[in-house]
Amino acid sequence: MTSWLRDAIFYQVYPQSFFDSNGDGIGDFRGLEQKLSYLQDLGVNAIWMNPCFDSSFFDAGYDVRDYYSVAPRYGTNEDLRQLCESVHERGMHLLLDLVPGHTAIDHPWFLESCKDEQNTSTDRYIWRVGGPRCQYYQGIAGFLSGISERPGMVAFNCFSTQPALNYGFGKVTESWQFSWDSPEAEQMRLKIQEIMSFWLDLGCDGFRVDMAGSLVKEDEGRIHTIQLWKKVRSFLEESYPQAVLVSEWGIPAQALEAGFHMDFLLHTGPSHYMDLFRENPYFSRSGRKDLSEFAAYYQEAYAQTNGKGLICIPSGNHDMIRLRETLTPEESKLAFTFLLTMPGCPFLYYGDEIGMRYVHGLKSKEGGYERTGSRTPMQWTGGINAGFSSASPQSLYLPVDPEDDRPTVEAQQADPDSLFRHVQNLISFRKQHTALCGDAGFIFLSDGKGGPLVYTRRSSEEVLLIAINPSDAPAAFTVPSEALPAQILLSYHDTMLSEGQLKLSSGGFAILSLPETYMS
Ligand code: NOJ
Question: Which member of 40, 168, 186, 471 lies 3.0 to 4.6 Å from 180 by CB, making a disulfide possible if both were Cys?
Answer without folding.
Answer: 168
